[in-house]
Amino acid sequence: MTTNKYLYWLVSGAVAAMLQSCAIPNIMTKEADTALPAQYSGKAAAADTQSSASVSWKEFFQDQNLVSLIDTAVANNKEIQMMAQRISMAQNEIQARRGAYLPFVNAGGGINYEKTSKFTRLGAVEDGLKIHNQSFPTFLGDYQFGLVASWEVDIWHKLRNAQQVAVLDYMATTEGKSFLVTNLVAEVANSYYELVALDNQLLTLQKNIEIQQNALNVIRELQKYARSTSLAVKRFEAEVKKNQSKQYVIKQQITEAENRINMLLGRTSQPIARNSDGFMELQPKAVETGLPSQMLANRPDIRRSELELAAAKLNIDVARANFYPSFTMNAGLGFQAFKPQYLLNIPDALGASLGAGLMGPLINRNAIIAEYKNASASQIEKAYEYEQTIINAYMEVANQIANVDNLSKNFSLKTDQVNQLTQSIDVANQLFKNARADYGEVLLTQRDALDAKMELIDTKQQQMSAMINLYRSLGGGWR
């Protein structure tokens, strides 16, 4: 009776200590602020209700050469392929976590030989016993095989929550791939129109060289009749040479743009099929922005950040469960004998075991507390990161909306400027032939006209880039 009483108090004390060990320190968590304005800044009061982000890039871009390039990039880009492997690893992690809360069953066997010293209790017993009128062998065998099972009962949902964290991480990685595709589509499109713009700049420069060469020929003729000087001839010759040298600068830029596109397409250098004709008449596609709230569902980086925040919240529950006792069950079933011929004797050689255990942290819980606090800090960090991602996305859209509008006005004014300067070239040439203007005015007029044309082409490219970047900022391009 006294023994049972001591046992009772021992078990009660252990249970009380274990319950005391379940005391969990207080931590902080944060809810993300996802509030957004009702409409984008700079927009008219009647905001769009549809968003171009829902349009596939194959439908958004009309140039078939560009569509073909993007299609190749999405299939072959090396970063996309590396991301696919990260997704595969995240999926494998789900399988690993799922298996953690299922019973483990192992099968195995073993052979062991042992010689016991006669000067031990077991050795003395062996020396005095006879089995079937035979002494124990010098080396006693131990043959065994069977099944061993173990199972941690997931009382506190620690293992299930860990599996759900793996699921959320997998989904976040998938969104990361979508975000990568979005940026890849925009980068290929921007590089394509940059290449087309360089083609137009090269063509404009060559036409300007032709005009200047004609002017140079005129001045040489006038010099024969003493109506021009050798200084004018030299200045025009130098201007022609300067612009001829610029051709090679642009050709180098074209080479680099082609190579950049080829790199995005995951291949080595080769010509890029493109249609550069009619670039200056190309009108950027109108982009419907929709409402800011729609951006939350369309942008993969926002959805990825949201999933990472959800995973961080669950990680707190996983870390909290480490304070609670874990309940494990163990079982074994197999055959064991000291000689092989006895191994399959049933039921004599058959052995079985069944046990259960309850274990929880009692002393020195610093590591568990630190992990719990880290989970809290990570959740707060992810909440701020989510908020920052939303703010950045909104600002990107707002900036591109203003950029599209300002570039449209800029292009209109630059077009008028180019038209005026183009006309002024003919006027300057006529005045120079009639000795009413010097060669410097002709040279300056041609130079200004060339610079304005180059700027106009650059502005057109910026218009196309603004359209592409607005589409990307809204979350388009990954579908």
TrEMBL record:
UniProt-listed InterPro entries: MdtP/NodT-like (IPR010131), OMP_efflux (IPR003423)
SUPFAM superfamilies membership: Outer membrane efflux proteins (OEP)
Primary residence: membrane
Superkingdom to which the source organism belongs: Bacteria
Alphabetical keyword list: Lipoprotein, Membrane, Palmitate, Signal, Transmembrane, Transmembrane beta strand
Entry keyword Lipoprotein: yes
Subcellular localization: Cell membrane
Signal peptide segment: 1-23
UniProt topology in membrane: Lipid-anchor
Gene3D superfamilies per record: Outer membrane efflux proteins (OEP)
Any matching Pfam family: OEP
Listed NCBIfam families: outer_NodT
Recorded family membership: Belongs to the outer membrane factor (OMF) (TC 1.B.17) family.
Name the UniProt record assigns to this protein: TolC family protein
Organism expressing this protein natively: Methylophilus glucosoxydans
